[in-house]
Amino acid sequence: MFADKFAASRVRAASNVASGADYRLKARGKRVRETGLKAMQQFFWSFWWLIFPVGGMVYAAFQSWLKFRQQKAMMDLIRSYAEKGMQPPEALLKQLDAPLELDADERADRRGERNPGHYWSLVGLFVILSAGFGIAAWMDVDRDSGAFVVVSMVMAAVAVWSLINALMFGRPRS
């Protein structure tokens, strides 16, 4: 009985191939294409967050290249003064001694100032983020995983830290 069913299925498959319509191969090829597309989608959705660190690395490399170009331009200018036998201006020499200023954090560190306005803006930012994640957790967006609750609590802690810094580091007295 089993042999009869097996033989019948082979006869049908042979007749489909003979007629030029092998539906199984067409369906299999379509499945391969769909599987490949799903694999790429899965790959993207699994590693979409890598866009940000890779973007940061590209930005850092570009900033480093800009600093290199700036130093090279200053050295070329000093070299041109030396070839002419002239003394370079003092402002140019001072600029060569000073660290390069392309990063806002480096400028703020050199000034040594703590601006409470910066901390107040962080308080506002993290309170809003904490509230947003808290509402998302309350609305069960994360399907009871608890991730949004943890993120909301971390954002609230950073908001409290920013508030303490904003209150402790007042404006400099003049």
Into which percent range does the helicity of residues fall? over 70%
Reported for the largest beta sheet, the result is: none
How many DSSP helices? 7
SSE order, one letter for each helix or strand: HHHHHHH
Portion in beta strands:
under 5%
Q: How far from one another are the termini? A: 102 Å
- Count of discrete domains: 2
Give Rg in angstroms: 33 Å
Q: Given the C-alpha coordinates, what overall shape results?
A: flat
Oligomer: single chain
Based on secondary structure, the structural category is: mainly alpha
Determine the mean pLDDT: 78
Low-confidence spans? 21-25
Q: What is the number of beta strands?
A: 0
Summarize the structure.
The protein contains seven helices and no strands. It has helices at residues 2-18, 23-47, 51-84, 90-97, 104-111, 116-138, 147-168.
Walk me through this protein's architecture:
The chain is mostly helical. The protein has 2 domains: 86 residues, no CATH class; 62 residues. 79% of the residues lie in helices and 0% in strands. It is built from 7 helices and no strands. Helix 6 packs antiparallel against helix 7. The protein is flat and about 75 Å long. About 3% of the residues have low confidence.
